[in-house]
User: Fold these one by one.
Assistant:
Number 1:
Amino acid sequence: MSGTSYDQIDVDHHVKIYLRVFAALAVLTVITVAVAELHLAPGWAIALALTIATVKGSLVACYFMHLISEKKLIYALLILAALFFLFELILPFVTENNSLHQIL
Amino acid sequence: MAESEHHDHDHHHEELGFWRKYVFSTDHKVIGIQYAVTGMLFLFFGFCLMMLMRWQLAFPGEPVPLLGKLFPRGLPGGVMLPEFYNELGAMHGTIMVFMGIVPLAVGGFGNFVLPLQIGAPDMAFPRLNMMSYQSFLIGGLIMFGSFFLPEGAAQSGWTSYPPLADIAPSGQTAWLIGMVFLITSSLLGAINFLVTTIQLRADGLSFFRLPFFCWAQFVTSFLLLLAFPPLEAAAFMQLMDRVAGTSFFLPSGLVVSGQALEVSGGGSPILWQHLFWFLAHPEVYVLILPAFGIVAEIIANNTRKPLWGYKSMVYSLIVLGFLSFVVWAHHMFLTGMGTTMSAFFQTTTMMISIPSVIILTALILSLWGGSIRFTTPMLFALGFLPMFGIGGLTGLPLGLTAPDIHLHDTYYVIGHFHYVVAPGTIFALFAGIYYWYPKVTGRHMSEFWGKVHFWPSFVLMNLIFFPMLIQGMAGMSRRMYDGGATYAHNEGVLYLNKVISFAAWGLALAQIPFILNLFLSLRKPKTASANPWRATTIEWAAPSPPGHGNFTRPVAAYRGPYEYSVPGESEDFTPQFEPAKAPVAAH
Amino acid sequence: MHWFLRFPELASEHGARLDHVTVLVHILMLALFIIWGALFIYMIFRFSQKRNPKADHDGVKSHLSSWGEGAVALAEVILLVGFSIPLYSERVDDLPPAEDSVVVRVIGEQFAWNVHYPGPDGVFGETRVDLVDLQTNPIGLNRDDPAAADDVVTLNQLHLPVGKPALIYLSSKDVIHSFGIPEMRVKMDAIPGMLFPVWFQPIVTTEEMRQRTGDPDFNYEIACAQLCGLGHYRMKGFVTVHTQEEFDAWMAEQQRLKEEAGEVDDFWT
Amino acid sequence: MATPTVVPIDKIIPHTVKPREDTGLNNVKIGIWLFLASEVMLFGGLFASYILLRVGADRWPRGEEYLSIPWATANTLILIASSVTMVMAWASCIRKDFGKYRLYMGLTVLGGLGFMIIKYIEYTSKFHHGYFPSTNTFLAVYFTLTGLHALHVLSGMIVNLYFWGPGAKMWHTEHERFTNRVETAGLFWHFVDLVWIFLFPILYLL
Ligand code: HEA
Ligand code: HEA
Ligand code: CUA
Ligand SMILES: [Cu+2]
């Protein structure tokens, strides 16, 4: 958002979007809960729940955090962070041989 | 923070009181000095701990002379207890890494030099800068204070592996809390450095005109920013394990001294190691990159020619930064890793050695065709090169799993990394101190005593650390309270323990000229000009020492950072901040 | 080519290859250090201010250094692919078949190594945490389990026959230890809650090694390599490598002792 | 030569308010995003640990065995709503409508407060049932993750409260800078919301 002078921002348009996003988020929240009540197979349940969460997260990031119209530098930064975040998520999967649970 | 209305009457043009000026200052130069002095004090403290350890290693079980009365807890009757030895080891490592080198190299040099080199009036967030220092100080004091806990300081190694660390006495809790403060400090610092470098560069100072030192700080800050949080998460979890009785790192059914441990279990000790090394491998590059930066500046200045291969050095730096996040498990080869995983981490480890080779080669080749001045900073910078060479090269066998089976957790590892950090980074830091001292204080340090400092230090460092490689090859494990005397296979190398210890104490003596030089030079008259080394980078455009807001005139960059000995120029240096004499046609 | 590295005595089958890789890496390191170092020293003298008062703006023009860096990379690739990866993969993945090896469990504790042999029946008796008793039953062996009847448990004494793979399953009761026998070139962490196999084939008996080193008291030692608390430095075990006959005799002796002692274990040393 | 007063340093530092030309951003904006990047790594470490512990566990309870989904759903909606009021507060800054700003910012703080109260109710009810972090790994993860998140909510509330109250003085003196500050606080607040959006299904629903 920064960069554009504040006088040029069409606030009313923004506000309209915020309200729509709010509605979408609320609906998606209800859907996540409803889906969880279905007790799907774990794989599907996880995939679905995380997909919905990702959609919700993206909405927050894109509209509330104005990522949709952000500067290149911020994108570069976030791509970097995302990359390292992925490195981090390799972490549980490089732990082999983690199967024995009793000591003796 | 008292709004001190204290007025100076001795005609200093200052409206800031003593507290605001020296203690709660937001001036990057003051904060840099605070960081550097605190860092040096901690280095000195870590050094003292090490000398105590070396007594025990050289003369296992014999009472330490003089000190017995002072530390009745750890040295009853002067004889060191094994617990106390472990405390010394863990705290030596922690203090040197997190409270010595990082604050000095990044907090000190970074804070003082970086804004000056990019022509900025200060850091982007001065108040955050102050908080960063204060957070460091609190963390440091907690760590220091933990020695006075009834059961002493942390004693599970600087790596704090659980379950040992989970069931260790309360010093470990202090260690964790201290770490959280230190991490917070580094995060705040890193954000500040990054924003400063991105936003406050002077006109014309494009990224590829940045001095190499700035690049090194820039990449270092990224490492700090992105590698520290996982350790923070791990520290929280270990704290929960210790305080709230969780079992993040404790598997079910532990039996400690014949007693079943009353915890829910289900955790994984390996998890800590992953999170720790995810930080700690990038962390070791945090220790070395600023050193590269300092050495590069000094080499360019003292050879009177540009750095050779500046661009490839910068690219190597960036690649190094990236790769440092995917090699962490080379510290964990012997934790039951399978072929695939170990092959992956071996390969990345070998890959990461290549950018280091490129940087080192470029630094060495920069000497070619130069006109080398053997000033004290240059001596330390030159000493750095082969020392880092030995340290880096000994990393190679450790990075290959097969040799690592034999070498893991032996003194070979100790030798490896001390070569990189002690005659490596510490030498670079000494070089930097001698180099920027005139800028910081307006005074010169004595060249003669500088050389008296360098030569013995150089010899003794090698006498300390080379024998460690031999001991390690013989199979001597690290963290041995009796220096490995229990084991028959160490017999042939035990005599080296004494050699090393005497060399270490000798090294202490060799620092006396430095300490005296550092402090006594402060009493000399301020004779340093703005640019005593006839250097090209922008920090030398500011007066020595720089005042409030740093520069007395607007600065901009007109060329690359190291335009030394430009053909056709009358002087052998063409500062970055001097406009071209005969203006070239505008583009 | 071993002279310049001070390795401990060598007593395992794979050890020679491990040493070989180590030597190769060190040759690479030495070569680099000498070449770069020679260049470095030459330049320090050649380009001192005295000899070269005026610096040359451009410096080196050749691109030889890229070749040098390329060569380093190539050497590393060869070390990786040709030596280290295959050797390590054999260590962790090509476990010898249990029937051809001596299978032993080693359980670390602060500050000792418990060694558990399955006995002649080749089956380990059940061990349970709730049966652990520091003095009489450190590994919680369930003595009512028929498979446990002939199990042999020793403290800090690992007996192995020469020339036969020893397959050791490592774990720990309390904190992380590391099981290392320098002469055998093995080392592996013993982590509570995890079970890692380690294997090696001893090729020199203790007796032979005593002759070779001229030290009548020589013993192979298990050295704990991971900081495990205040007694880490003295967490030492012994490995005795017998001939097969001696080993069988030792095992028979243990069985006899067991019978004599009935339920009471008196072989803790 | 004598300069009796020194210009405060924040007045000399460029780009505190106005964006730099080549990056198009002001200092604070980059700073907060860098901070959020580090937060991503912090929670990433915790998520990674959660995955590792869960995959390695013999049995992992479903959230509903211990936790209350209705309360958590309510909390999710509250937090989302407070994110909306937060952007509205920012929009009011741009509209230069101080009354609205006060209203929306106040609502945001109240949203945070509501969230914390519900968290408090949840925590105490766990404790009453004898569920503690030490009970099992699931609860350990639950308390650590939500606890750390709650700390973030708390710090966000403190910042917002400051801008609602004393910090709002800047509205009149340096309006643009103030607007930037609100935006920055908002970015943090939305991030906290975003983390919760992931925590909710992971801890309560799966
Ligand atoms: C600043 C610190 C630093 C640096 C830069 C490095 C650099 C490297 N390290 Fe090191 N390392 C540590 C600090 C560091 N390390 C620490 C602290 C530990 C131990 C932690 C603990 O367990 O407590 C450790 C441990 C450690 C291990 C684990 C060992 C074990 O526990 O078993 C490994 C394994 O792969 C490793 C590998 C490497 C490699 C491949 C590099 C490479 O990046 C090196 C690349 C460099 C070169 C290859 C040199 C090239 C130079 C020349 C070609 C020129 C020669 C020059 C002249 C003659 C003038 N290191
Ligand atoms: C940056 C890191 C760093 C540095 C610089 C050092 C420096 C030194 N270290 Fe250390 N060390 C570690 C990090 C470091 N170490 C770590 C991480 C471990 C592992 C811990 C563990 O097992 O968990 C370790 C372990 C370790 C051991 C092994 C202990 C064991 O395994 O039982 C030994 C043994 O000799 C040792 C010795 C030394 C020596 C002789 C120095 C010397 O080089 C010291 C030289 C120091 C100086 C030259 C400082 C000079 C500074 C001044 C003089 C400042 C003065 C200024 C003022 C007073 C204003 N260190
Ligand atoms: Cu067991 Cu060290
Ligand atoms: Cu490493």
Number 2:
Amino acid sequence: MNWLEWVTGAAGFLLTVMVLSYLIGDNVFFRLAASIFIGVTAGYLAVLLIRHILWPFLIQPLIYEPWQTKLWLGIPLLLIFLLLISQFPRMIKLGRIPLAYLAGLSGGIAIIGAVFGTLLPQSMAVINVFDAWAWTESSSPLWREMLEGAVMLVGVIGILSYFYFGRKRNLQKEKQAEQRPAIFEAFSQVGQVFIGITLGSVFASLFSSALLALIDRIAFIGKFIMNLFRGF
Amino acid sequence: MAVLICPECGAENTPGDEYCWSCRRALTDVEPVNDAVQDEPLGGHLDELLNSEEDLPGLLHALRQDGNIDGEQGDAEDVQSGEFHDSLGQASSGQSGREEEIPEWLRRIRQRAKQEKDSIGEVTQKISAAQESLADEKRSSQHESYADWIERLHQDFSQEQVAKDSAEGAPTGKAGQLPQTEDPEWLAKILKVHGKSVEKQDLDSLSTERLGGNSLLQWLVDLESGKEKLEPLSEEEPPAAKQSGDAVGEGDQNERTVDGDTTQEIRIKKGTSVKPVLSISRKEQLEADLISATIVDETAPRAMRKFEKPGSPWVIRAAVTVILITALSLSLFSGASTSNLSGSLKPQHRALITWLEQLPAESRLLLVVDYHAGFEAEMALIAQPVLSKAVQASSEFVILSSTESGVLLVDRLLQDIDGFETLVVSNAGYFPASNFAAFGLGAGIDPSWRFVHAPDAVNGLPQGDFEGILVLSDSYDGAKTWIEQLYAQFSEVTINLITTAQAGPLLLPYYESHQLGGLVSGLSEARQMTAYLNVENSTSHLWEAYRTGVLMMIIVIVLGLFFMSDHEGQETDRSKGEKA
Amino acid sequence: MKKNLSVAMAVIIGVIVLAGYFFRDQLGPVLTLIIDWGILLVSVLGLLGIGYLIKSHITKLIKKEKGAFNSVVVLLAFISVLVAGLILSTENDIFQKLILTVQIPVEASLLGVLAVTLMITSLRLLRTRGWTLMSVGFLVSAVISMLVDVAFFQTEPGSPADEILKFWSNLPLIGARGILLGMALGGLLVGLRVLLTIDRPYGED
Amino acid sequence: MTLRMVGWVVIGLAAGLLGFLTIFLKRGRHYPIRTHQIARLFSSSQEASIERGLPRQIVLGHQLWSYSYPGLGLWAIGALPVFLTPEASADGLLSVLTADGALAIMARQVAEQTYHDGYSPFLSQTCAQIRLPGLTPLAFTAGFLSGITRQPYGTLSLLGAYGPESLLWVDAVQRRDGMAMAAAGTLAGQAALYAYVQNILIGESIFMLPNLIKPGYSSQASLLTEDILRIILIASLIIGTMLKVLGVL
């Protein structure tokens, strides 16, 4: 193990023990490790933004590109200038124009992303489960394909009903103010089960990844201690 | 001395201040208030006391009820009492010689009473004036009798009256005599109440023996301090009494009084209290509500909800931590043998293996790195078998990263694979997932759509033909983003996905809809891949510990079913929530 | 005047993005330009965000608030990595080792702490949620997924057990699809509220 | 009619419905929304925290733009004014946290504007503070856990796109007698918090939150629009599957 590996190994060991000490309780060591991590990550991100985006796509064109290209960068430079001077308390209102640009852009992207990125593809995926031609081609028995399709449709409709916002009309009891109209309330019971199943499955896979990280850290500590003893 | 009174918070500021020292309000539009005290002879205010049309019984009634003086009376007084206050205010704000004895709080109340036109201000101001005058009188001379006082009053009054009449051209009586003026009705009433019946005509021949050497002001103060009792005036029956008959319950009242009837005696049973029905005007009700709203009873139990301590008790937390780490350590370092691998390869695994086996020599692959440093260990376990096969058949890797340390992580990952040295690795740049992916970089934007001379601001997706794309991701969101982006841009190229367990369960449909060539996620699937690719078995020593951890979690969930399922958490909060 | 300018800016940019996706061939270049400028703006905002982080630690240091020592550590780490990164570049080996030596242990350990917290959380599930259809579904699904993950069930291909397991592995997807469809509807409305100036998340009231 | 045309019809229909219903509900009409206990528990906790002078924090998530959850970051910024009431931000103990620079700067503008609506700048200079504990999800977690003091905590409100690491924030808050309220988050974030946080809104229910806390005609209009689009979506799924089975689609 050369000296660089030894140093990085020792640093990793110390940081691992300091962060895992949070399981005992919030302590000074954990805060120290967290501070080092925050500083390093912020510094590295700043380097990435400068080297990979701002330098090649904003500063370099301003220096080396012809004036026509510089002209195209006029508007972004103005927006960036407004953004920077809006950091002074007295000029805060100037920051609204670049942020309005960003909000409009985000709004447009949200609409396009919602409709063309999720709404249509997911709807078509539900409908395509009922592809009779594909059923005949599939290796699984027909009853299972039809069952899967029916369960998919009922499940999706149940979940959409679970999220229904409108309230049940003409309430008898105050408790009913949390209920949906009758038909949506019925379907939402089905939807609840499917939401629970999805969240449970994601919870299990989440635990798997986190568990593997914990096992890796324990293995690393064990290996380092053994190397330490082997070293003397 | 003039002062600036801040209209916002009432604080006094020295003239010339731009802002109030207390609440920083601008004082530019505030007029300085003259706080100067003029010397006035002591007697001056006393004749004004007598002279004012003040209805003293009204004051007494107010003292008794400790409430408001009736609205209509109050208005009548406001005008009159205005000057009255000023004079008293000046007098009570202290003769020049006594300013320092009068406490600060009293001077501030009087100052405020001059500003505030509410009933409380008036009463406060009159009581304090009465007390002040009494104190002055005691200090100035002990032996002066009441008669000398009245005598001096008359002389002052006549001089002033003569001066006023000459100004108005009115007929004046003989010098030194009180012009026949209508004597104040209030004085007659007080004297009657005081048990001394005095005929109106004899008012001038008032003498001290009939008043029994007892001064009016002394009586006023005693009344206020409760030593004197005020007997109700006989002819003025309090209106409330008439109505009380109605207010009393049926059982207690023998005969019901009807308007226009002769008055009937109402026998009231012992112990029944006749509840006086207060006739309160709307304005008074609003003021009373305002006062009760502002004075909040600090001691009342507050409706704040003490949250039940939802965090698990420290003991359970420590127990779970110690047991889990001990179990994992034991299974890691005990060198337990790996159970033989069985179970069938899933279709998506088989497709990935087939793709690796059919990779042409010298192929060019695109590697998309979308995982963070925390998942480095898991990704190494899952991706190593696949990459070791891919490296053998490839000549160039183009790396594109969408997480900060993506490029660093994949360099570290490839260094552990033999044959990596011969590989050409080029870095296609950093694509912050949220920036680029959100723009549908690949989904329908043609890279050629660009104005002439317009500079790039985006790393365009690397061009050229690839034999395959490998996406290494640690979350469902990142994987979904890159699958849809790359499928739109490179629909003819096979896209394979290597993800951590966390991303796995929801990505299967992309394989079934043929957007994905192959998919492997999580340690258990990686073990099966390793076995079939017969790559050096790097997952075995972790597998036992992983199984132990997962089985412990299942046990904990089942324990939670039985021991922790008393669901008072939600009920208590709801019941408390109802109360709050 | 400034208020209408920013409202108008938001509406115009939003409409251009929608039009750019609709009339791709005619407005493609305009769309690309607007997106490029947006990326530059977001990158500058990222740098400003780093500025906020550093400024808060400097303020903590100047005011000598509690935890000022940690702020010193953050500032030292930040400056050293920034200078090293700008001088050595990100491809440098030593620079890469410096970054990964800190990031991997801390992030992996935080995930390890998350694993223990997830285990404690699963103890409290019923106490928090009570016996509802959703919590029962959650529990059953979590237990079965873990058992399948550790190959507890060994099934022969094509056997009924295998078919049931395949059917079961599709169920989480139904829930995900329903949730994503719902969130897409919400996302659509959020975007429209900005374009119709109902919401003005740029500081206008 | 291609899928793209269907998409534009949906966008046009949604825009028209939203515009019309906003005007329709503005004239005093009311669309009854179902209640949820989260609003009552949140406001009682908020009051208790303000009275006891406990810190209150709002997390806006990690991403302004998210491909998988379009509009989630924008929604968090749009919902922020509901939480920044003058009373809540006057004592200087309310702070807004995020890991994204764009979200931070937009939050600052919104906080400054909502604050000036309620208070004159002369009275008090403090409004909600904007802070970035860290710039990646796990760096944000490290910054949050080391930034939280050992004193009792008030209320933590989670909005926007955040991952499963949010479980560590909530655990730290609840150990200090604080109350956490979670809306939104990625699927993994919601799965992690579901078992631990009592006041959680799953999936699309998050869009009810602004109306639950501060009812208004404009939020009711978008909830009504969403319900109408939902019914149309359910109907089209049923019709689509029938046509698919018959081989028409």
